[in-house]
Amino acid sequence: MNTVIMYSNQPSSLDAKKYTLSDLCLKPLDSNACLTYSPLDYWSNNASHLFSDPSILKTLSLTNKISPIGMLVPLNSVFGNAVYKKKKIVSADSIILTYFLKGMEDCNESQIMTIWEAIWNQIINDTDTTFRLGENRIISVNMNHQGKLEHLYFNSDRNGSLVKQALLMLAYLIFPLFTLSSARLDFVRSKSGLIFSAVAHVFASLIMSLSICSRFGITLTFASVSWKLLPFILILIGVENTLILTNAVTAIPMQLNVEERVAKGLEKVGYTITKMLISWILVLLIFSVTSIDSIQEFCIFTSIALIIDYMLQISFFVAVLSIDLQLFALETICTYCNDNDNTDRDVIPPSKTANYGRRIGGSLVVCINF
């Protein structure tokens, strides 16, 4: 780095000297470059090698990498809070770059550290810190001095990403609501209640799948764009099965009780729903054979989520549907009773008041006994 600062180790500023990072750092005997210890050692400190590497994570998985100074480069020493999967690094919170400084005759240790901090402050001031880092736009870089450590914090513009996440969550909610609200749900009491139940059990299956993966040590990086499509896949399958099941049950004649209607509905479409589940899992197992970790994670997690979603469909949603049908049947009978009451009140002569009372009493008994 060619950044120059003026620093005086004497009380008078007239004695200020020019210092660069090259003046402070230790250099190998056969090189004019500063001696460093960093992840760049995996690419021999060559930027062109880094940019042309087709698989950076695969390169970092090498366990016998030797730095230019003849030292092994453990990943824990060059990355902060590294996360591993199958003994391969998948992410980290920070990158650690170590510079080896040398002593100078005209400066003591505290003065060298002051020059070191001043150089980095000047580097940040002279550098355009507005750039993109992956999907995030870096708007500024801050530095925090902690003894001999310099912590550089990259501040990203999160407004854009927050807006995208909010729109994505809104789409997750609108998609099933629009699909179910536009569907034909006849002979149910609360259409909105069934819609809410269908959406709730889909998101519950996602949360339970995360818990199961975490319990069995399945690491999920969520680095692939395909993860954003997962809720849509579950919603599509869950909503379709929900509609199939609801229509099958409501198609059974209302003369039967609710338990028989639900049983006959499950008997009618249970095979179709189960066959669809098995087909999806087989497809996901075929794609999980690939060596790409993100696709394997997606296939495993989706398979678990589909199985849980299937179990919730035949347990939670069936229970909600049964309650709704029971209330609908009770409401229908009570409405019929009220209609008969109004009809009898209009057509029965006053002389037959006793018979009229017996009819009303019989109707009320029917409503109560149901």
From TrEMBL:
<keyword id="KW-0812">Transmembrane</keyword>
<dbReference type="GO" id="GO:0045540">
    <property type="term" value="P:regulation of cholesterol biosynthetic process"/>
</dbReference>
<dbReference type="GO" id="GO:0005789">
    <property type="term" value="C:endoplasmic reticulum membrane"/>
</dbReference>
<feature type="transmembrane region" description="Helical">
    <location>
        <begin position="229"/>
        <end position="249"/>
    </location>
</feature>
<dbReference type="InterPro" id="IPR000731">
    <property type="entry name" value="SSD"/>
</dbReference>
<dbReference type="InterPro" id="IPR030225">
    <property type="entry name" value="SCAP"/>
</dbReference>
<keyword id="KW-0256">Endoplasmic reticulum</keyword>
<feature type="domain" description="SSD">
    <location>
        <begin position="161"/>
        <end position="323"/>
    </location>
</feature>
<keyword id="KW-0853">WD repeat</keyword>
<dbReference type="Pfam" id="PF12349">
    <property type="entry name" value="Sterol-sensing"/>
</dbReference>
<dbReference type="GO" id="GO:0000139">
    <property type="term" value="C:Golgi membrane"/>
</dbReference>
<keyword id="KW-0333">Golgi apparatus</keyword>
<dbReference type="GO" id="GO:0032934">
    <property type="term" value="F:sterol binding"/>
</dbReference>
<dbReference type="GO" id="GO:0032933">
    <property type="term" value="P:SREBP signaling pathway"/>
</dbReference>
<feature type="transmembrane region" description="Helical">
    <location>
        <begin position="195"/>
        <end position="217"/>
    </location>
</feature>
<keyword id="KW-0677">Repeat</keyword>
<dbReference type="InterPro" id="IPR053958">
    <property type="entry name" value="HMGCR/SNAP/NPC1-like_SSD"/>
</dbReference>
<keyword id="KW-0472">Membrane</keyword>
<feature type="transmembrane region" description="Helical">
    <location>
        <begin position="269"/>
        <end position="287"/>
    </location>
</feature>
<protein>
    <submittedName>
        <fullName>Sterol-sensing domain of SREBP cleavage-activation-domain-containing protein</fullName>
    </submittedName>
</protein>
<feature type="transmembrane region" description="Helical">
    <location>
        <begin position="299"/>
        <end position="323"/>
    </location>
</feature>
<dbReference type="GO" id="GO:0032936">
    <property type="term" value="C:SREBP-SCAP complex"/>
</dbReference>
<feature type="transmembrane region" description="Helical">
    <location>
        <begin position="166"/>
        <end position="183"/>
    </location>
</feature>
<keyword id="KW-1133">Transmembrane helix</keyword>
